[in-house]
Amino acid sequence: MKAPSELVLFGVLVAVAGWLAAKGEFAGAVVAALLSAAFLADFLRDYCKEMKIAQKWRLDRWNALQELERKYRAEVYGRVPPKLDQLNDRIRDAEKRAAAEIQERFGPLP
Is the pTM value of this prediction over 0.90? Predict the structure, then answer.
C-alpha cells in the first residue's frame, strides 16, 4: 500500500491550500484543495479495495479450514464408535494430515 507517500502529499497540498488562502490567493487555494481531495479520494479507494481483498482472503481461508475440519472429523469418528485408544490414534493421525494439508495450501502458519 502506498499510504505514507500519498498521505504526506495530501498533507502538503492541504498546507499549501491553507497558505494560499491566508495570502488571499483563493483561486490557487481552491486548486490545491481540489487536488488534495482527489489524492485523498484515490487513497481511500485503494485502501478500501485492499481491505476487501484481505477480507475475502480471510473468508476463503476460514471456509477452507472449516471444510478440512468436517472432512477429518468424519474420517476420525466414522460410522462405528471406535475404542478410546483407537480414537486417540485416529485423532493424532488426522491432526498430522490436516496440519500437513494446511501448510501445503496456505504456507507455514504464523
Answer: no
